[in-house]
Amino acid sequence: MPNNVAVQATARLHLGFLDLNGSIGRRFGSIGLALDAPATTLTLARASSQHVTGPEHARAAAHLEKMQRHLGLTGHHQLILREAIPAHAGLGSGTQLALAVATALRRLEGFDLDIPGDAEQLQRGARSGAGAGLFAQGGLIVDGGHGTRKGTPPVLARLAFPEFWRIVLVMDKGIKGVHGEDERAAFATLPQFQAAAAADICRHVLMQALPALVESDIGQFGAAIAQVQTILGDYFAPAQGGRYTSPAVGKIMAALGEAGAHGLGQSSWGPTGFAFAESEGEARRLVDQISQDAALLHLDVLICKGLNHSARIETNIETKNLEHQIQSG
Fold first, then answer.
1. Do 183 and 239 fall into the same domain?
2. What CATH code is carried by the domain that includes residue 17?
């Protein structure tokens, strides 16, 4: 067995739910995309006493303790978090953190990996299976939502994201997306989602977004995602104060649209907004158009790539590198 294990899990975009109506037996389902940044990076090793440090250490410690009990482990561990995806920003931080901790512990102690099982054990994927699927595979994922069986929603399709396309993220660190009890309350108070709207979303995903991705047609891909986002944005607007949780992000997203960006939307409950560009140069042109206004609104803008591989797992990091992590953690 290894002496230590490092895991890096990156952020994901939640591009939309497929069916919030659920009248044919399955509800939710979603389309998600793995990004190359931001990331959650951690290192786990055995220790004489339990010790967890770094960003999001409280959540990480709870996941570690729960997985130790689940696997029947009685020893202690040192968990060092070097960086963490911003919490409640619509980037999948909770699922990626939970699965990174669980995966590190399994690999360190010689257990087979069980990403869907750990997602269920750590109460992730209550609505979307995209986070677990993207942790395991990367790329763009479509999951089938929840039916009568318990467990993490199944992955129905996985496609590679074009290497030359880019994603522009617009982030508002001053606002948190709806989460926890507020999220449950929002779903409880929103009106019934119309079956016709769910059918429209599924048609745009299956017959427009996915074929366009295979053919590297950013115009059609962007049009499909924008339509899905429009339908869902209007539905969730009463619960989040408009199509965008952050009015400032909404303003910059409108400017990106005027500048020619594709597929504008908000990831999950936000506040992070996203747009697609066909190249690095085009993404930089778009960012140059909005950077000054974004700075005045105290927003962060980031250019990302799609990530076409699973979370990274590395074992037996050199002692000097591990000591550096301990000091920086």
1. yes
2. 3.30.230.10
Residues 170 and 103 in one domain: no
Partners of 34 in the β-ladder: 12
Question: Taking residues 52-77, what's their average pLDDT?
Answer: 97
Judged by DSSP in three states, 301 sits in strand
CB-CB contact of 8 with 67 (8 Å): no
pLDDT tens digits for 76-100?
Answer: 999 999 999 999 999 999 999 999 9
Residues 57 and 105 in one domain: yes
Residue 42, SS3 per DSSP: strand
> Could you tell me whether strands 76-83 and 51-53 are parallel, antiparallel, or unpaired per DSSP bridges?
parallel
pLDDT band at 326 (very low <50, low <70, confident <90, very high): very low
> Domains in the chain: how many in total?
2
8 A C-beta contact, residue 15 and residue 225: yes
d(CA 298, CA 301): 10
Same-domain status, 155 and 181: no
| 243 Cβ contact list (under 8 Å, min separation 6) | 229, 230, 233, 234, 236, 237, 250, 266
Does the pTM surpass 0.85? The reply is: yes
Contact 57, 84 (CB under 8 A): no
Domain that holds residue 131: 1-160+307-329
Pair 299, 313 in one domain: no
Per residue in 212-270, pLDDT (tens digit) is 999 999 999 999 999 999 999 999 999 888 999 999 999 999 999 999 999 999 999 99
Which amino acid, 306?
A: G
Q: What single-letter amino acid sits at 169?
A: L
Shared domain for 286 and 209, answered yes or no, is yes
314, 320, 319, 318: which is closest to 42 by C-alpha?
A: 314
CATH number reported for the structural domain that contains residue 219 in this entry: 3.30.70.890
Question: Rounded to a whole number, what is the distance in angstroms from the first to the last CA of the chain?
Answer: 24
> Which residues on adjacent β-strands are paired with residue 266?
273
Measured in degrees and rounded to the nearest 5, phi and psi for residue 43 equal -130, 135
3-state secondary structure of 12: strand
